[in-house]
Amino acid sequence: MSAILLIAEHRRNAVRPVTLELVSAALAVRGELGARVEVAIIGAQPDALAPALGLEGVDELLLVPAPTGEFQPECYATVAQALIAARRPRLVLIPHSVDGISYAPAVAATGGHGYASDVSALRCVGGAIVATRSAYREKVRVELDFPGRRTVVLTVRPGSFPAAGRAGGVPVTTLAPAGGPLNSEHRGYIEPEPGGDVDVSAAEFLVAVGRGIGDRETTEEVSKLAERMGATLACSRPIVDAGWLPKSRQIGQSGRTATNCKLYLALGISGAVQHLAGMKHVETVIAVNKDPDAAIFSVAKFGVVGDVAELVAELRALYP
Amino acid sequence: MRILVCVKQVLNLDDEFEMRGDGLDVDRDYCDRDLNEWDDYALEEALRIRERAGGDIEVVAATVGPEEAAAELRKCLAKGADRGVRVWDECLQDGDGMMIAHVLAAIVRREKPELVLTGVQGADHGEAQTGVALAALLGWPWAAVVRALELGADAGEALVRRELEGGLEECIRIRCPAVLTIQVGINTPRYASLRGITQAAGKPVDTPAFGELAIDGAAIAAARASRVRRMYVPPRPSPSMIEGDAAEQAAALAALIREIRGGPR
Questions:
Q1: B173 vs A187, A291, A304: nearest CB
Q2: Residue B200: enclosing H or E segment and its boundaries?
Q3: Which residues on chain A are in Cβ contact (under 8 Å) with B262?
Protein backbone atom coordinates (compact mmCIF):
# COMPACT_ATOMS: atom_id res chain seq x y z
CA MET A 1 0.00 0.00 0.00
CA SER A 2 1.30 3.43 -0.84
CA ALA A 3 1.67 6.20 1.69
CA ILE A 4 1.18 9.89 2.30
CA LEU A 5 3.93 11.20 4.55
CA LEU A 6 3.33 14.25 6.72
CA ILE A 7 6.14 15.98 8.57
CA ALA A 8 4.92 17.46 11.85
CA GLU A 9 5.96 20.97 12.78
CA HIS A 10 6.67 21.89 16.35
CA ARG A 11 8.38 24.69 18.22
CA ARG A 12 9.33 25.01 21.87
CA ASN A 13 7.88 21.59 22.72
CA ALA A 14 4.47 22.25 21.19
CA VAL A 15 2.98 20.97 17.94
CA ARG A 16 2.12 23.87 15.65
CA PRO A 17 -1.57 23.86 14.65
CA VAL A 18 -0.83 23.80 10.90
CA THR A 19 0.25 20.18 11.35
CA LEU A 20 -3.38 19.26 12.07
CA GLU A 21 -4.36 20.88 8.78
CA LEU A 22 -1.89 18.70 6.87
CA VAL A 23 -3.90 15.67 7.96
CA SER A 24 -7.08 17.09 6.41
CA ALA A 25 -5.15 17.86 3.22
CA ALA A 26 -3.99 14.24 3.11
CA LEU A 27 -7.53 12.97 3.63
CA ALA A 28 -8.61 14.89 0.50
CA VAL A 29 -6.62 12.48 -1.69
CA ARG A 30 -6.07 9.44 0.54
CA GLY A 31 -8.93 7.45 -0.97
CA GLU A 32 -7.93 7.91 -4.58
CA LEU A 33 -4.26 7.27 -3.87
CA GLY A 34 -5.18 4.22 -1.77
CA ALA A 35 -2.64 5.47 0.72
CA ARG A 36 -1.92 5.19 4.42
CA VAL A 37 -1.35 8.47 6.26
CA GLU A 38 1.90 8.53 8.21
CA VAL A 39 3.02 11.45 10.37
CA ALA A 40 6.71 11.84 11.17
CA ILE A 41 7.78 13.68 14.31
CA ILE A 42 11.42 14.74 14.28
CA GLY A 43 12.76 16.04 17.56
CA ALA A 44 14.81 15.51 20.70
CA GLN A 45 11.87 13.80 22.43
CA PRO A 46 9.37 12.99 19.71
CA ASP A 47 7.39 10.68 22.00
CA ALA A 48 6.40 13.69 24.12
CA LEU A 49 4.68 15.22 21.08
CA ALA A 50 2.98 12.00 19.94
CA PRO A 51 -0.22 12.39 22.01
CA ALA A 52 -0.99 15.73 20.31
CA LEU A 53 -0.80 13.99 16.94
CA GLY A 54 -3.20 11.17 17.65
CA LEU A 55 -5.56 12.44 14.98
CA GLU A 56 -8.48 11.08 13.03
CA GLY A 57 -7.26 9.65 9.73
CA VAL A 58 -3.66 9.09 10.81
CA ASP A 59 -2.58 5.46 10.37
CA GLU A 60 0.84 5.62 11.99
CA LEU A 61 3.09 8.00 13.90
CA LEU A 62 6.79 7.76 13.07
CA LEU A 63 9.09 9.01 15.81
CA VAL A 64 12.55 10.10 14.71
CA PRO A 65 14.84 11.13 17.57
CA ALA A 66 17.06 14.04 16.54
CA PRO A 67 20.16 15.60 18.08
CA THR A 68 18.33 18.85 18.74
CA GLY A 69 14.84 19.71 19.86
CA GLU A 70 14.85 22.89 17.81
CA PHE A 71 14.24 22.95 14.09
CA GLN A 72 17.36 22.39 11.99
CA PRO A 73 16.82 22.40 8.21
CA GLU A 74 19.55 19.92 7.21
CA CYS A 75 18.33 17.48 9.84
CA TYR A 76 14.72 17.71 8.64
CA ALA A 77 15.74 17.42 4.99
CA THR A 78 17.92 14.38 5.64
CA VAL A 79 15.27 12.61 7.70
CA ALA A 80 12.59 13.36 5.09
CA GLN A 81 14.84 11.93 2.36
CA ALA A 82 15.46 8.76 4.37
CA LEU A 83 11.73 8.34 5.06
CA ILE A 84 10.91 8.82 1.38
CA ALA A 85 13.49 6.16 0.44
CA ALA A 86 12.18 3.73 3.06
CA ARG A 87 8.43 4.27 2.73
CA ARG A 88 8.16 5.37 -0.91
CA PRO A 89 5.25 7.77 -0.33
CA ARG A 90 3.34 9.16 -3.31
CA LEU A 91 2.87 12.43 -1.49
CA VAL A 92 4.83 14.32 1.18
CA LEU A 93 3.07 17.21 2.92
CA ILE A 94 4.95 19.92 4.79
CA PRO A 95 3.52 23.19 6.14
CA HIS A 96 4.18 26.31 4.07
CA SER A 97 5.56 27.97 7.18
CA VAL A 98 8.88 29.65 7.87
CA ASP A 99 10.38 26.33 8.95
CA GLY A 100 8.60 24.37 6.19
CA ILE A 101 9.99 26.50 3.38
CA SER A 102 13.38 26.21 5.05
CA TYR A 103 13.76 22.53 4.10
CA ALA A 104 11.00 21.34 1.74
CA PRO A 105 12.74 22.66 -1.42
CA ALA A 106 15.93 20.87 -0.33
CA VAL A 107 14.05 17.57 -0.06
CA ALA A 108 12.62 17.98 -3.55
CA ALA A 109 15.89 19.20 -5.10
CA THR A 110 18.02 16.43 -3.61
CA GLY A 111 15.59 13.64 -4.37
CA GLY A 112 14.44 14.91 -7.76
CA HIS A 113 10.84 14.82 -6.61
CA GLY A 114 7.84 16.69 -7.90
CA TYR A 115 7.41 19.94 -5.99
CA ALA A 116 4.98 22.76 -5.47
CA SER A 117 4.78 25.26 -2.64
CA ASP A 118 2.06 27.23 -0.86
CA VAL A 119 -0.61 24.82 -2.07
CA SER A 120 -4.17 25.69 -1.06
CA ALA A 121 -6.11 22.85 -2.72
CA LEU A 122 -5.34 19.30 -3.66
CA ARG A 123 -7.04 16.59 -5.72
CA CYS A 124 -6.44 13.53 -7.85
CA VAL A 125 -7.18 13.42 -11.55
CA GLY A 126 -6.95 9.93 -13.00
CA GLY A 127 -4.62 8.85 -10.22
CA ALA A 128 -2.33 11.87 -10.70
CA ILE A 129 -1.85 14.53 -8.03
CA VAL A 130 -3.01 18.02 -8.99
CA ALA A 131 -2.12 20.94 -6.71
CA THR A 132 -3.57 24.46 -6.79
CA ARG A 133 -1.65 27.55 -5.69
CA SER A 134 -1.92 31.29 -6.21
CA ALA A 135 0.37 33.60 -8.15
CA TYR A 136 0.82 37.25 -9.10
CA ARG A 137 -0.21 38.59 -5.70
CA GLU A 138 -3.22 36.29 -5.39
CA LYS A 139 -4.71 37.51 -8.66
CA VAL A 140 -4.58 34.15 -10.42
CA ARG A 141 -4.67 30.49 -9.47
CA VAL A 142 -2.37 27.90 -10.97
CA GLU A 143 -3.05 24.18 -11.28
CA LEU A 144 0.09 22.08 -11.32
CA ASP A 145 0.76 18.42 -11.99
CA PHE A 146 3.93 16.39 -11.73
CA PRO A 147 4.40 14.10 -14.73
CA GLY A 148 7.02 11.40 -14.31
CA ARG A 149 7.42 11.91 -10.56
CA ARG A 150 6.67 8.99 -8.28
CA THR A 151 6.88 11.20 -5.17
CA VAL A 152 5.49 14.72 -4.96
CA VAL A 153 6.51 17.09 -2.14
CA LEU A 154 4.05 19.90 -1.38
CA THR A 155 4.08 22.71 1.14
CA VAL A 156 0.53 23.47 2.26
CA ARG A 157 -0.71 27.00 2.90
CA PRO A 158 -1.78 27.44 6.54
CA GLY A 159 -5.52 27.96 6.95
CA SER A 160 -6.43 26.15 3.72
CA PHE A 161 -7.68 22.97 5.36
CA PRO A 162 -9.58 22.39 8.62
CA ALA A 163 -7.71 20.97 11.58
CA ALA A 164 -8.16 17.21 11.95
CA GLY A 165 -10.02 15.95 15.01
CA ARG A 166 -8.53 13.86 17.78
CA ALA A 167 -8.47 10.07 17.75
CA GLY A 168 -7.00 7.56 20.14
CA GLY A 169 -4.99 4.44 19.51
CA VAL A 170 -2.82 5.56 16.61
CA PRO A 171 0.09 3.09 16.34
CA VAL A 172 3.50 4.57 17.10
CA THR A 173 6.78 3.37 15.60
CA THR A 174 10.15 4.63 16.78
CA LEU A 175 12.72 4.81 14.00
CA ALA A 176 16.51 5.09 14.01
CA PRO A 177 17.72 8.45 15.29
CA ALA A 178 18.80 11.17 12.88
CA GLY A 179 22.51 11.83 12.98
CA GLY A 180 25.06 13.57 10.90
CA PRO A 181 27.09 16.70 11.40
CA LEU A 182 24.96 19.81 11.17
CA ASN A 183 26.25 23.06 9.74
CA SER A 184 24.12 25.41 11.77
CA GLU A 185 23.04 25.48 15.37
CA HIS A 186 20.23 27.09 17.31
CA ARG A 187 21.45 29.84 19.64
CA GLY A 188 18.19 30.95 21.20
CA TYR A 189 15.02 32.85 20.50
CA ILE A 190 14.28 36.55 20.60
CA GLU A 191 10.79 37.30 21.90
CA PRO A 192 8.53 39.71 20.02
CA GLU A 193 8.93 43.25 21.28
CA PRO A 194 6.19 44.17 23.74
CA GLY A 195 3.57 46.57 22.48
CA GLY A 196 3.70 48.90 25.45
CA ASP A 197 0.14 49.98 26.17
CA VAL A 198 -1.08 48.83 22.75
CA ASP A 199 -2.46 45.37 22.11
CA VAL A 200 -3.75 45.12 18.56
CA SER A 201 -4.86 41.52 19.22
CA ALA A 202 -7.30 42.73 21.86
CA ALA A 203 -8.81 45.63 19.89
CA GLU A 204 -12.35 45.33 18.53
CA PHE A 205 -11.96 48.09 15.96
CA LEU A 206 -8.73 48.33 13.99
CA VAL A 207 -7.79 50.94 11.44
CA ALA A 208 -4.88 49.47 9.53
CA VAL A 209 -2.56 51.12 7.03
CA GLY A 210 -0.48 49.48 4.30
CA ARG A 211 2.00 50.46 1.65
CA GLY A 212 -0.68 52.29 -0.34
CA ILE A 213 -0.89 54.94 2.38
CA GLY A 214 2.04 56.53 0.59
CA ASP A 215 4.02 58.41 3.21
CA ARG A 216 4.70 58.95 6.88
CA GLU A 217 2.60 62.11 7.04
CA THR A 218 -0.55 60.34 5.88
CA THR A 219 0.19 57.54 8.34
CA GLU A 220 0.24 60.16 11.09
CA GLU A 221 -3.06 61.56 9.81
CA VAL A 222 -4.56 58.07 10.05
CA SER A 223 -3.18 57.75 13.57
CA LYS A 224 -5.19 60.85 14.57
CA LEU A 225 -8.20 59.63 12.63
CA ALA A 226 -8.11 56.26 14.40
CA GLU A 227 -7.99 57.98 17.76
CA ARG A 228 -10.99 60.15 16.86
CA MET A 229 -12.90 57.12 15.61
CA GLY A 230 -12.19 55.19 18.80
CA ALA A 231 -10.13 52.66 16.88
CA THR A 232 -6.71 51.16 17.42
CA LEU A 233 -4.09 51.83 14.78
CA ALA A 234 -2.54 48.79 13.10
CA CYS A 235 -0.55 48.18 9.92
CA SER A 236 0.84 45.68 7.47
CA ARG A 237 4.46 44.75 7.20
CA PRO A 238 5.85 47.36 4.77
CA ILE A 239 4.91 50.13 7.22
CA VAL A 240 7.04 48.49 9.91
CA ASP A 241 9.89 47.88 7.49
CA ALA A 242 9.76 51.57 6.54
CA GLY A 243 10.03 52.48 10.23
CA TRP A 244 6.76 54.43 10.26
CA LEU A 245 5.13 52.27 12.97
CA PRO A 246 6.53 49.83 15.54
CA LYS A 247 6.38 46.06 15.02
CA SER A 248 3.83 45.74 17.82
CA ARG A 249 1.26 47.35 15.46
CA GLN A 250 1.76 44.80 12.70
CA ILE A 251 -1.04 42.40 11.78
CA GLY A 252 -0.10 39.25 9.86
CA GLN A 253 1.92 36.09 9.86
CA SER A 254 5.09 37.68 11.24
CA GLY A 255 3.13 40.06 13.46
CA ARG A 256 -0.02 39.80 15.56
CA THR A 257 -3.40 38.27 14.84
CA ALA A 258 -6.51 40.47 15.02
CA THR A 259 -8.05 38.01 17.47
CA ASN A 260 -10.77 40.18 18.98
CA CYS A 261 -11.42 42.43 16.02
CA LYS A 262 -15.01 42.94 14.81
CA LEU A 263 -14.38 45.80 12.38
CA TYR A 264 -11.23 46.18 10.31
CA LEU A 265 -10.73 49.24 8.15
CA ALA A 266 -7.87 48.48 5.74
CA LEU A 267 -6.36 51.59 4.15
CA GLY A 268 -3.99 50.96 1.26
CA ILE A 269 -3.42 47.32 2.15
CA SER A 270 -3.16 45.15 -0.95
CA GLY A 271 -3.81 41.92 0.95
CA ALA A 272 -0.68 39.78 0.72
CA VAL A 273 -1.44 36.31 2.00
CA GLN A 274 0.83 36.88 5.01
CA HIS A 275 -1.31 39.85 6.03
CA LEU A 276 -4.63 38.09 5.36
CA ALA A 277 -3.48 35.29 7.68
CA GLY A 278 -3.82 37.71 10.58
CA MET A 279 -7.18 39.30 9.76
CA LYS A 280 -9.27 37.47 7.15
CA HIS A 281 -11.46 35.97 9.89
CA VAL A 282 -12.69 39.41 11.01
CA GLU A 283 -16.46 39.71 10.68
CA THR A 284 -16.54 43.07 8.91
CA VAL A 285 -13.62 44.17 6.78
CA ILE A 286 -13.83 47.48 4.93
CA ALA A 287 -11.11 47.80 2.33
CA VAL A 288 -9.91 51.00 0.67
CA ASN A 289 -7.51 50.56 -2.22
CA LYS A 290 -6.76 52.18 -5.55
CA ASP A 291 -6.46 48.77 -7.27
CA PRO A 292 -9.93 47.27 -7.79
CA ASP A 293 -8.31 43.82 -8.16
CA ALA A 294 -6.35 44.02 -4.88
CA ALA A 295 -6.61 40.74 -2.95
CA ILE A 296 -7.86 42.57 0.15
CA PHE A 297 -11.26 42.95 -1.54
CA SER A 298 -11.66 39.16 -1.55
CA VAL A 299 -12.01 39.21 2.25
CA ALA A 300 -13.88 42.52 2.50
CA LYS A 301 -17.60 43.03 3.13
CA PHE A 302 -17.41 46.63 1.93
CA GLY A 303 -15.00 48.19 -0.54
CA VAL A 304 -13.90 51.62 -1.65
CA VAL A 305 -11.82 52.04 -4.78
CA GLY A 306 -10.00 55.33 -4.77
CA ASP A 307 -7.05 57.40 -3.68
CA VAL A 308 -6.35 56.52 -0.05
CA ALA A 309 -4.74 59.82 0.95
CA GLU A 310 -7.68 61.77 -0.47
CA LEU A 311 -10.17 59.60 1.38
CA VAL A 312 -8.19 59.98 4.61
CA ALA A 313 -8.28 63.77 4.21
CA GLU A 314 -12.07 63.67 3.75
CA LEU A 315 -12.51 61.38 6.76
CA ARG A 316 -10.35 63.67 8.88
CA ALA A 317 -12.77 66.49 8.07
CA LEU A 318 -15.62 64.32 9.36
CA TYR A 319 -13.74 63.39 12.55
CA PRO A 320 -12.11 66.71 13.46
CA MET B 1 36.10 37.43 -0.77
CA ARG B 2 33.17 37.22 -3.14
CA ILE B 3 29.43 37.48 -2.45
CA LEU B 4 27.06 36.28 -5.14
CA VAL B 5 23.57 37.78 -5.07
CA CYS B 6 20.94 35.92 -7.09
CA VAL B 7 18.27 38.26 -8.42
CA LYS B 8 15.16 37.85 -10.52
CA GLN B 9 13.15 40.04 -12.82
CA VAL B 10 9.54 39.69 -11.69
CA LEU B 11 6.32 40.50 -13.48
CA ASN B 12 3.73 42.79 -11.91
CA LEU B 13 0.28 42.51 -13.39
CA ASP B 14 -1.40 45.67 -14.63
CA ASP B 15 -4.87 46.43 -13.27
CA GLU B 16 -6.34 45.10 -16.49
CA PHE B 17 -4.58 41.93 -17.52
CA GLU B 18 -5.33 39.00 -19.77
CA MET B 19 -4.35 35.39 -19.87
CA ARG B 20 -2.04 34.07 -22.54
CA GLY B 21 -3.71 32.28 -25.44
CA ASP B 22 -2.74 28.80 -24.18
CA GLY B 23 -4.16 29.56 -20.69
CA LEU B 24 -0.90 28.54 -18.99
CA ASP B 25 0.31 31.99 -17.95
CA VAL B 26 -0.62 35.64 -18.10
CA ASP B 27 -0.05 37.65 -21.26
CA ARG B 28 3.31 39.36 -20.70
CA ASP B 29 2.07 42.43 -22.59
CA TYR B 30 -0.05 43.24 -19.51
CA CYS B 31 2.85 43.26 -17.08
CA ASP B 32 5.45 45.63 -15.70
CA ARG B 33 8.88 44.24 -15.03
CA ASP B 34 10.84 44.97 -11.89
CA LEU B 35 13.70 43.79 -9.73
CA ASN B 36 12.25 41.36 -7.19
CA GLU B 37 11.80 43.27 -3.96
CA TRP B 38 13.28 40.51 -1.76
CA ASP B 39 16.39 40.36 -3.97
CA ASP B 40 16.82 44.12 -3.62
CA TYR B 41 17.21 43.59 0.15
CA ALA B 42 19.66 40.73 -0.49
CA LEU B 43 21.76 42.97 -2.74
CA GLU B 44 21.69 45.77 -0.15
CA GLU B 45 22.89 43.36 2.53
CA ALA B 46 25.81 42.29 0.33
CA LEU B 47 26.74 45.93 -0.34
CA ARG B 48 26.64 46.68 3.39
CA ILE B 49 28.88 43.71 4.19
CA ARG B 50 31.36 45.06 1.65
CA GLU B 51 31.18 48.58 3.07
CA ARG B 52 31.63 47.36 6.65
CA ALA B 53 34.66 45.33 5.57
CA GLY B 54 36.10 48.40 3.89
CA GLY B 55 36.77 46.80 0.52
CA ASP B 56 38.35 43.57 -0.69
CA ILE B 57 34.90 42.06 -1.22
CA GLU B 58 33.49 41.61 -4.69
CA VAL B 59 29.70 41.68 -5.05
CA VAL B 60 28.45 39.81 -8.11
CA ALA B 61 24.79 39.96 -9.18
CA ALA B 62 23.55 36.91 -11.07
CA THR B 63 20.27 36.30 -12.82
CA VAL B 64 18.75 33.56 -14.91
CA GLY B 65 16.59 35.35 -17.43
CA PRO B 66 16.19 36.53 -21.01
CA GLU B 67 17.65 39.68 -22.54
CA GLU B 68 15.04 41.94 -20.93
CA ALA B 69 16.16 40.77 -17.46
CA ALA B 70 19.50 42.51 -18.10
CA ALA B 71 17.72 45.70 -17.00
CA GLU B 72 17.54 44.37 -13.43
CA LEU B 73 21.25 43.49 -13.44
CA ARG B 74 21.95 47.08 -14.51
CA LYS B 75 19.95 48.30 -11.51
CA CYS B 76 22.12 46.12 -9.26
CA LEU B 77 25.30 47.48 -10.86
CA ALA B 78 24.02 51.04 -10.48
CA LYS B 79 23.44 50.43 -6.76
CA GLY B 80 26.99 49.16 -6.39
CA ALA B 81 27.42 45.54 -7.48
CA ASP B 82 30.83 45.10 -9.14
CA ARG B 83 29.72 42.97 -12.07
CA GLY B 84 26.86 40.88 -13.38
CA VAL B 85 26.24 37.40 -14.74
CA ARG B 86 23.19 36.58 -16.84
CA VAL B 87 22.43 33.12 -18.12
CA TRP B 88 19.63 32.16 -20.46
CA ASP B 89 18.66 29.36 -22.75
CA GLU B 90 15.44 28.76 -24.65
CA CYS B 91 14.84 25.57 -22.66
CA LEU B 92 14.19 27.80 -19.62
CA GLN B 93 11.16 29.43 -21.23
CA ASP B 94 8.24 28.58 -18.91
CA GLY B 95 10.72 26.78 -16.68
CA ASP B 96 10.11 26.32 -12.96
CA GLY B 97 12.11 27.32 -9.89
CA MET B 98 13.84 23.97 -9.66
CA MET B 99 15.30 24.39 -13.15
CA ILE B 100 16.47 27.89 -12.22
CA ALA B 101 18.13 26.50 -9.08
CA HIS B 102 20.11 24.02 -11.20
CA VAL B 103 21.38 26.82 -13.46
CA LEU B 104 22.26 28.99 -10.44
CA ALA B 105 24.20 26.05 -8.97
CA ALA B 106 26.34 25.99 -12.13
CA ILE B 107 26.93 29.75 -11.82
CA VAL B 108 27.99 29.32 -8.18
CA ARG B 109 30.38 26.52 -9.10
CA ARG B 110 32.03 28.80 -11.62
CA GLU B 111 32.09 31.96 -9.51
CA LYS B 112 33.13 30.20 -6.27
CA PRO B 113 31.73 32.82 -3.88
CA GLU B 114 32.14 32.56 -0.11
CA LEU B 115 28.53 33.62 0.43
CA VAL B 116 25.35 33.47 -1.65
CA LEU B 117 22.45 35.78 -0.82
CA THR B 118 19.05 35.81 -2.47
CA GLY B 119 15.51 36.86 -1.60
CA VAL B 120 13.20 34.60 0.42
CA GLN B 121 10.79 34.50 -2.50
CA GLY B 122 9.80 36.10 -5.76
CA ALA B 123 7.09 38.74 -5.72
CA ASP B 124 5.41 37.11 -8.73
CA HIS B 125 5.01 33.43 -7.84
CA GLY B 126 6.03 33.47 -4.17
CA GLU B 127 7.36 29.94 -4.31
CA ALA B 128 10.10 30.51 -1.73
CA GLN B 129 11.97 27.65 -3.31
CA THR B 130 15.02 28.69 -5.30
CA GLY B 131 17.49 29.64 -2.55
CA VAL B 132 17.01 26.55 -0.40
CA ALA B 133 16.98 24.25 -3.47
CA LEU B 134 20.20 25.90 -4.64
CA ALA B 135 21.91 25.23 -1.30
CA ALA B 136 20.83 21.60 -1.38
CA LEU B 137 22.14 21.13 -4.93
CA LEU B 138 25.48 22.65 -3.89
CA GLY B 139 25.62 20.67 -0.66
CA TRP B 140 26.13 23.96 1.21
CA PRO B 141 24.76 25.02 4.60
CA TRP B 142 21.77 27.33 4.37
CA ALA B 143 19.36 29.40 6.38
CA ALA B 144 16.03 30.79 5.21
CA VAL B 145 14.08 33.94 6.06
CA VAL B 146 17.06 35.85 7.41
CA ARG B 147 16.25 39.10 9.19
CA ALA B 148 19.73 40.00 10.50
CA LEU B 149 23.17 38.91 9.44
CA GLU B 150 26.61 39.28 10.96
CA LEU B 151 29.54 37.71 9.18
CA GLY B 152 32.38 36.34 11.32
CA ALA B 153 35.81 37.96 11.06
CA ASP B 154 37.27 35.24 8.84
CA ALA B 155 33.95 34.72 7.02
CA GLY B 156 34.04 31.07 8.14
CA GLU B 157 30.75 31.45 9.94
CA ALA B 158 27.86 33.84 10.31
CA LEU B 159 25.45 34.76 13.06
CA VAL B 160 21.99 34.97 11.63
CA ARG B 161 18.53 35.84 12.89
CA ARG B 162 15.61 34.09 11.23
CA GLU B 163 12.17 35.64 11.31
CA LEU B 164 9.60 33.15 12.56
CA GLU B 165 5.84 33.49 12.93
CA GLY B 166 4.20 35.90 15.36
CA GLY B 167 7.16 38.26 15.76
CA LEU B 168 9.43 35.57 17.21
CA GLU B 169 13.00 35.38 15.92
CA GLU B 170 15.55 32.59 16.07
CA CYS B 171 19.29 33.14 16.39
CA ILE B 172 21.51 30.60 14.70
CA ARG B 173 25.19 30.20 13.99
CA ILE B 174 25.97 28.83 10.54
CA ARG B 175 29.12 27.68 8.76
CA CYS B 176 30.09 29.42 5.54
CA PRO B 177 30.15 29.23 2.59
CA ALA B 178 26.41 29.25 2.90
CA VAL B 179 23.26 30.26 1.06
CA LEU B 180 21.08 32.72 2.98
CA THR B 181 17.61 33.74 1.85
CA ILE B 182 16.96 37.32 2.87
CA GLN B 183 13.70 38.68 4.25
CA VAL B 184 12.44 42.17 3.46
CA GLY B 185 13.02 44.61 6.30
CA ILE B 186 16.56 43.40 7.08
CA ASN B 187 17.79 46.80 5.86
CA THR B 188 16.60 49.74 3.77
CA PRO B 189 17.70 49.28 0.17
CA ARG B 190 19.42 52.28 -1.34
CA TYR B 191 18.43 54.06 -4.50
CA ALA B 192 20.95 54.16 -7.29
CA SER B 193 22.80 57.48 -7.46
CA LEU B 194 23.16 59.33 -10.73
CA ARG B 195 26.85 58.57 -10.59
CA GLY B 196 26.09 54.91 -9.95
CA ILE B 197 23.81 54.75 -12.95
CA THR B 198 26.52 56.28 -15.13
CA GLN B 199 29.15 53.89 -13.79
CA ALA B 200 26.89 50.85 -14.26
CA ALA B 201 27.13 51.24 -18.02
CA GLY B 202 30.85 50.50 -17.82
CA LYS B 203 30.63 47.48 -15.54
CA PRO B 204 30.97 44.02 -17.07
CA VAL B 205 28.01 41.66 -17.50
CA ASP B 206 29.05 38.16 -18.44
CA THR B 207 26.56 36.02 -20.39
CA PRO B 208 28.03 32.53 -20.49
CA ALA B 209 26.26 29.90 -22.57
CA PHE B 210 25.18 26.58 -21.08
CA GLY B 211 28.28 24.96 -22.61
CA GLU B 212 30.65 27.33 -20.78
CA LEU B 213 28.96 26.48 -17.50
CA ALA B 214 29.12 22.73 -18.21
CA ILE B 215 25.33 22.63 -18.14
CA ASP B 216 23.48 20.01 -20.11
CA GLY B 217 20.20 21.44 -21.41
CA ALA B 218 18.52 18.04 -21.26
CA ALA B 219 19.46 17.68 -17.59
CA ILE B 220 18.01 21.11 -16.84
CA ALA B 221 14.77 20.22 -18.62
CA ALA B 222 14.62 16.98 -16.64
CA ALA B 223 14.93 18.93 -13.38
CA ARG B 224 11.45 20.38 -13.87
CA ALA B 225 9.52 19.63 -10.66
CA SER B 226 6.05 20.72 -11.78
CA ARG B 227 4.03 21.49 -14.88
CA VAL B 228 1.34 24.13 -15.24
CA ARG B 229 -1.93 22.53 -16.30
CA ARG B 230 -3.96 25.70 -16.18
CA MET B 231 -3.82 29.27 -14.90
CA TYR B 232 -7.05 31.15 -14.30
CA VAL B 233 -8.60 34.12 -12.57
CA PRO B 234 -10.54 32.77 -9.60
CA PRO B 235 -14.10 33.88 -8.99
CA ARG B 236 -13.95 36.42 -6.16
CA PRO B 237 -16.56 37.14 -3.57
CA SER B 238 -17.01 40.83 -4.32
CA PRO B 239 -17.72 43.29 -1.52
CA SER B 240 -20.47 45.94 -1.66
CA MET B 241 -18.71 48.86 -3.25
CA ILE B 242 -19.09 52.39 -1.96
CA GLU B 243 -19.24 54.67 -4.99
CA GLY B 244 -18.95 58.42 -5.50
CA ASP B 245 -16.17 60.97 -5.18
CA ALA B 246 -13.83 60.98 -2.20
CA ALA B 247 -16.12 63.23 -0.10
CA GLU B 248 -19.16 61.06 -0.80
CA GLN B 249 -17.22 57.88 -0.13
CA ALA B 250 -15.90 59.29 3.17
CA ALA B 251 -19.42 60.29 4.27
CA ALA B 252 -20.81 56.85 3.40
CA LEU B 253 -17.89 55.18 5.16
CA ALA B 254 -18.41 57.25 8.32
CA ALA B 255 -22.12 56.40 8.32
CA LEU B 256 -21.32 52.71 7.85
CA ILE B 257 -18.82 52.70 10.71
CA ARG B 258 -21.35 54.43 12.98
CA GLU B 259 -23.93 51.83 12.03
CA ILE B 260 -21.59 48.95 12.80
CA ARG B 261 -20.06 50.44 15.93
CA GLY B 262 -23.13 52.19 17.29
CA GLY B 263 -22.87 55.66 18.75
CA PRO B 264 -24.15 59.11 17.81
CA ARG B 265 -25.24 59.88 14.29
A1: A187
A2: helix B194-200
A3: none
| CA separation for the pair A99, B132 (Å, rounded) | 11
pLDDT at B263: 60
Instruction: Say how many CB pairs under 8 Å bridge A and B.
Output: 256
**Distance between CA atoms of A23 and A107, rounded to whole angstroms?**
20
- The whole-angstrom distance between A173's CA and the closest CA on chain B is 29
pLDDT in tens, B38-63: 999 999 999 999 999 887 999 999 99
CA distance to partner chain A, nearest, from residue B66 (Å) = 19
Q: Which of A30, A52, A25, A31 is nearest to A41 (CA)?
A: A52
Q: pTM for the complete prediction?
A: 0.92
CB distance A244 to A219 below 8 Å: yes
> What's the pLDDT at A196?
73
Asked if the ipTM is above 0.85, the reply is yes
pLDDT in tens, B196-219: 999 999 999 999 999 999 999 999
Burial class (CB in 10 A: 0-12, 13-18, 19+), B192: middle
A264 min Cα distance to partner chain B (Å): 10
Q: Residue type for B65, please?
A: G
% of chain A beyond a pLDDT of 90: 91
Strand, coil or helix: B260: helix
| Nearest Cβ partner for A115 among B126, B226, B260 | B226
Please report which helix (H) or strand (E) contains residue B116, including its range.
strand B115-119
Q: What is the pLDDT of residues A131-177, one digit of tens each?
A: 999 999 888 999 999 999 999 999 999 989 999 999 988 999 999 99
Q: Which positions in chain A touch B168 (Cβ < 8 Å)?
A: 189-192
| Interchain CB distance below 8 Å, A109 and B261 | no
pLDDT of B15: 77
Instruction: Please calculate the CA angle A53-A56-A58 and round it to the nearest 5 degrees.
Output: 65
Spatial separation of the C-alpha atoms in residues B91 and B141, rounded to whole Å: 29
Average pLDDT for B148-165: 93
